[in-house]
């Protein structure tokens, strides 16, 4: 029961406080990772494996040892704080809602600027539908990366699992690119993130289906997910688009070049309302996970009491 209650407490803390207003620990981690990259970089996979291990594993080991040494109540409190820092549910809304408000007010330049804080593509040339699509895609994908993935690994391995996942996800965002610099050095960061996200991504996709238009979500997942470059983002975004009954994907500009991407979902083109609906879909999914965690814990506790 303590794990389920810790998940509820961390989500409540996130809703109350949001991300830390000062220097976020993940920002400090990113600076440390940059320093490690500067010292260990080499155009070889082994260099990337060593850098990843040095950046991530000591923190996970220290956290595990700390929790083992602390009294049970203190260990639980540490777990809640770690999970709170690993998730970003409120942050999703804080980034996406300004885009929706600007689009609803026909303030396209403001919407482009706001969505530029969420995505890596060029935003200056996006029309209103493309801005809404970019924001909706980001909400759906980050629902997995910033919320459900951390909850899954916390439920499985406790606070060390959530920390491992979040740090690995951060390094994937920093190093996991198929560019001349990171083709080999970033290989480990990208593959480890793929492995850690394999199950959570599919649970996230199924959660979107359960909390939205189920039949459309499953149909889009089956027919479209494999077309997407990322093996984990594909199911998440295809199922999410189907659950919302909107069309996502398609060509998008990166570094001045429009790149072709598969189309996802079905139905209408996204608008400001679609962004809000995507946020609501993620939130319903989180409530579903918390409810299931509490029910599972209660059943296990009841079984133990009966035995």
Automatic annotation (TrEMBL):
The chain crosses the membrane at residues 46-66, 146-168, 286-304. It is a multi-pass membrane protein. Pfam families: CobD_Cbib. It is found in: Cell membrane. Coiled coil: none annotated. Belongs to the CobD/CbiB family. Converts cobyric acid to cobinamide by the addition of aminopropanol on the F carboxylic group. This is Cobalamin biosynthesis protein CobD.
């Amino acid at each position: 029961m303590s794990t389920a209650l810790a998940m509820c407490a961390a989500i409540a803390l996130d809703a109350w406080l949001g991300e830390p207003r000062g220097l976020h620990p993940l920002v400090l981690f990113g600076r440390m990772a940059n320093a490690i990259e500067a010292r260990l970089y080499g155009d070889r996979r082994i260099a990337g494996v060593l850098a990843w291990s040095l950046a991530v594993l000591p923190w996970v080991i220290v956290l595990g040892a700390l929790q083992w040494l602390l009294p049970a109540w203190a260990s639980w409190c540490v777990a809640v704080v770690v999970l709170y820092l690993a998730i970003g549910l409120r942050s999703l809304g804080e980034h996406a809602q300004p885009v929706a408000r600007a689009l609803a007010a026909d303030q396209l330049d403001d919407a482009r600027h706001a969505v530029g804080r969420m995505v890596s593509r060029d935003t200056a040339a996006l029309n209103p539908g493309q801005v809404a699509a970019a924001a909706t895609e980001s909400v759906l994908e980050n629902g997995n990366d910033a919320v459900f993935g951390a909850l899954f690994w916390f439920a499985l391995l406790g606070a060390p699992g959530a920390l491992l996942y979040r740090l690995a996800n951060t390094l994937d965002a920093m190093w996991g690119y198929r560019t001349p610099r990171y083709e080999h050095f970033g290989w480990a960061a990208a593959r480890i993130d793929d492995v850690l996200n394999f199950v959570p991504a599919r649970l996230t996709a199924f959660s979107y289906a359960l909390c939205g238009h189920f039949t459309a979500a499953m149909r889009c997942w089956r027919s479209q997910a494999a077309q997407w470059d990322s093996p984990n983002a594909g199911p998440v975004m295809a199922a999410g688009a189907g659950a919302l009954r909107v069309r996502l994907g398609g060509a998008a500009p990166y570094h001045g070049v429009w790149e072709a991407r598969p189309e996802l979902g079905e139905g209408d083109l996204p608008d400001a309302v679609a962004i809000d609906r995507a946020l609501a879909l993620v939130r319903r999914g989180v409530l579903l996970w918390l409810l299931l965690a509490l029910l599972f814990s209660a059943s296990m506790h009841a079984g133990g009491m009966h035995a």
